[in-house]
């Protein structure tokens, strides 16, 4: 995982509907959470991102890569902040976006 250096290449903003679908599934669906952890490419394709968008989202500096996925409850509690990080115009290198204990906390 990246250290969160601000000079890293950002990924483009997620479409709002894809961000909502991702957060819905990560906060409710154990099978999707397993897929997201084991095969983030397949998980992001499943929520409707294009292959180029998935590749951009999974760069080393991305908030999508995690060591330990936050609990469903953590993601639900931080949903608004995480969504804003995903859809907002900005650096998109919040390395703890989905990390347990740090869900939604930007750097």
Notes on the structure:
The protein has a domain of 72 residues. The two termini are 14 Å apart. The protein is mainly α and 107 residues long. Helix 1 runs antiparallel to helix 6 and helix 2 packs across helix 3.
What is the count of β-strands? Answer: 0
Low-confidence parts, pLDDT < 50 over ≥5 residues?
Answer: 1-7, 91-96
- Roughly what is the average pLDDT, rounded to an integer? 79
Elements, N to C (H/E) = HHHHHH
Largest sheet: none
Range of strand content: under 5%
Q: Which range best describes the helical content: under 10%, 10-25%, 25-40%, 40-55%, 55-70% or over 70%?
A: 40-55%
Strand-helix topology:
Blueprint: H1 16-26, H2 30-38, H3 40-46, H4 51-57, H5 72-77, H6 79-87
Helix pairs in contact: 1-6, 2-3
